[in-house]
Structure formats: C-alpha cells, structure tokens
Structure prediction request, 160 residues.
Amino acid sequence: MPDTTSPLSPRGILMLMLAGALATAAFDIYGQVISPALGGSRLAPVPLAGSVWRAIAGFPSKEMAELLHYTAGVIGYPLGFALVARPLWQKIAPAVPWWAVAVAFGCAQWVFALYIMAHLVAGQPAFLGWTGITWAALWGHIVYALVAIGVSNHFALVRR
Prediction:
C-alpha cells in the first residue's frame, strides 16, 4: 500500500499546496492588515518579488512578480519544508515540537527572502536595510510557517 502521507504522493502534494495557500493568505493578511494595525510596517511581497524577477529576467512584469510570490508561498516553501527541513528535523531533533520547528523554519525563510533573494539576487540592501519592514517580514514568515506546518501537522504530513 502506498504511503499517502508522503509529501510527494498525490495526497501529500495537495495537502502541501493547501497548507501553502492558507499560509500565504495568513502571511498576506498579517503583512497588509495586522502588522500596520499594530503600528508595524506594511509588507510588500509582490514588489519585492518584482525586483527579483527584474534581476533574473531583465525586464519588469507585475504578473510575473505575483506569480513568483504565490508560487513561492503555495509550492516552493512547502516543498522546501517537506523535502529538506522536515527530514532534517526528524533525523536531528525529533523531540522538538512542531511549533518550535515552524518558528525556526520561518526564520530560515526570512533569511532566504530578505538576504538571499532580495539582497544577493535583486540587489536590495541586506535585510532591506534593517528597517521596520525587516521585522514585519520576520513575523510574517513565522506566521506563514506556523500556519503551513500546523496545517500539514493536522493532515498527518508532519508527525509531532
């Protein structure tokens, strides 16, 4: 009988995409509504993705920026967790609770987004210059990871 909880099974892929979609919605709600309501910065992930797209493709495209943002959230980050972070977690620290792993994964996503993609690829200041948006993005990525891994956990894709 096939393993239906494998992240690469048809059920696993659908559940990862569901987790990614819900997490992306949570990230966007946090960045557009909650952070500003709490006095923090408003996140602008699509323009940031646009600067990454422009650096890679050589021309601007709002549509490709949106596609890049949503593809990363719905597919890229969930696969990164399922194929890299989850196996490492299960081998190195299986006793660590899922929510603590989610906080660490959110921080790793933040470094990837704001240092590797925004800075090294798109040429923005490292961590966007350590402004208010830097910290809003940190919390946004943690919220994203908590939702994505929490949903995955609920559907038994993560066992902790």
